Amino acid sequence: MTAPMALARPSPNALWEMDRRHSLHPWTNFGPFEREGSLVISRGEGCYLWDAEGRQYLDAVGGLWCTNIGLGRKEMAQAIAEQAERLAFSNTFVDVTNDPSARLALRLAELAPGDLNRVMFTTGGSTAVDTAVRTVAYYQTCMGRPEKTDIVARDYSYHGSTYLAQSVGKRPGDRVPEFRYKEEGIHHLSVPNPYRRPEGMSEAAFCDALVAEFEALIARVGADRIGGFIAEPIQASGGVIVPPEGYLRRIWEVCQRHDILFIADEVVTSFGRLGHWFASWDLFGVQPDMICTAKGLTSGYVPLGALILSDRMWEAMAADGSRWFTAGFTYSGHPVSCAAGLKNIDIMEREGLLAHADRVGGYFEARMAALADLPLIGDVRGRRLMLCVESVADKATKAVLPDEANESKRISNAAEAMGLLVRPMGHLNVMSPPLVITEAQVDFIAETLERAIVQVTDELV
Ligand code: PLP
Predict the structure, then answer these.
(1) Are 67 and 299 in contact (CB under 8 A)?
(2) Long-range contacts, 51-56 (Cβ 8 Å, 24+)
(3) Residue 440 confidence (pLDDT)
(4) Per the UniProt record, which residue ranges are transmembrane (predicted)?
């Protein structure tokens, strides 16, 4: 019998074709995918990616808000390999643990604000959110309030892709009729987007109106029914929305008055993206009852998420001494993922990446602000390493372009041809580069994106 022939290394076209024939991509549009397939990425280092044909791109998308320490770090690969060799897997169900899981739980408790000292590891952001939302009912039931389980979220929020996480999220484009969502017991408030606030209203009055809307909802539904509120401190995929000054803190104060648990979805905003480990307290003065994190927690090297909850909640849930917390995942506390999480924190601390992100993020904000002068750009917004530009048909009325214009995808395509990756999202082009980005690389992003916008503007007229 002859040995089977070794497969030749597939050419980029063969990979592209394999993927096109056999993959079902997250958030894909069937038509363009059938026609155009995918960009095949084969290597990454720092802020750069290379495709299968060797073309280099500066990845201003940061993977997907996640490659915080930058790609290609040998010591990270080594930490992952060493842990995989020592103990690739051990579950953490009931009363078993492992070295990296216990150590990372301690590190997260040290880094998280206030009394957030209990960590449930998950497989990513969606499962952290899903667990947090379920834990609202659990906690309120333990407090003798089994009816207090409704959840309040906001329009344009994105909290992940499990059934429950996607039901609390509400980005308009995601709510396709082919899928189903849980409606009962979930309420959505208006998106706190200052750029799209009612004409003639000051930002302070807009903030008052948003808080009043929350109070009116509580009055209508009943504080005895609303158990939790969930928010991204800065809404990421819903449009990089920085709420009006004081908004989050005032919403938190309303939550406290009505015993409503505040869940901060910091899947994007933690681990240095805004220059802090966590943004809720450091930037917005909010002490959440639960924080969900993922992405920058391992800088995307391996999947991991975490739900961090308060001692106050833990004490209420554990008080009885006999209850079962029936939630968790096979890969909760995965030793390899947790080893990556520990190494990620070491690298961030050793290299001062939070301070760097704060500094270079300030420069990024300033450089991008200049793009607001372009005729196509209505708004440039965000903070530090989480920014976007919004295209409009008319800067005065803020009217959007018709769908056929497809301008944000065209801007991203034009930038891609110039060696820059930015993410098209509705009428936005979004950026969240690795924290290790330099000022020279920021200059490249600003100049290239400007050229791409000008090119597309010329094509549109
Ligand atoms: N929450 C927020 C704010 C996110 O941006 C995301 C993903 O982009 C998630 C949750 C879901 O995380 P994951 O995709 O890791 O499940």
Answers:
(1) yes
(2) 51/12, 52/12, 52/15, 52/16, 53/12, 55/419, 56/419
(3) 98
(4) none
Give the pLDDT confidence of 92-121 residue by residue, as tens digits. 999 999 999 999 999 999 999 999 999 999
Angle between helices 74-86 and 335-350 (to 10 degrees): 150
- Cα Rg, the chain, nearest whole Å: 23
CB 151 within 8 A of CB 176: no
Q: Is the CB of 119 under 6 A from ligand 1?
A: no
Query: 367 Cβ partners below 8 Å, 6+ apart?
Result: 442, 443, 445, 446
Query: ipTM greater than 0.95, yes or no?
Result: yes
Using pLDDT thresholds of 50, 70 and 90, give the confidence band for residue 36.
Answer: confident
- Calpha distance 226→147 (Å, rounded): 8
Burial letters for 153-177: b for 16+ Cβ neighbours within 10 Å, e otherwise?
A: bbbbbbbbbbebbbbbbbbeebeee
- Tell which residue, 284, 223, 285, has the closest CA to residue 255: 223
Whether residue 379 has its Cβ less than 6 Å from ligand 1: no
Contact between 436 and 72 under an 8 Å Cβ cutoff? The reply is no
Cβ contacts of 257 within 8 Å, gap of 6 or more: none
* SS3 category, 103: helix
Q: How far is CA 387 from CA 51, 176, 274, 320, 371, in A?
A: 25, 27, 10, 46, 12
Q: Tell me which residue has tokens 């690389």.
A: 441
**CB of 125 closer than 6 A to ligand 1?**
yes
Query: What is the distance between the alpha carbons of residues 220 and 198, in angstroms, rounded to a whole number?
Result: 24
Q: For the whole prediction, is pTM greater than 0.90?
A: yes
Q: Which atom of ligand 1 is least distant from the CA of 65?
A: 8
Residue nearest to atom 9 of ligand 1 (CA): 160
The best mutation among 267, 291, 292 to test binding of ligand 1, ranked by most ligand atoms within 8 Å of the C-beta, falls on: 267
Nearest ligand 1 atom to the CA of 129 is: 10
Closest-CA residue to 186 (of 170, 207, 205): 170
- Report angle CA 448, 355, 160 to the nearest 5 degrees: 70
User: What is the torsional sign of CA 134, 89, 44, 413?
Assistant: negative
Q: How far apart are CA 157 and CA 169, in angstroms?
A: 5
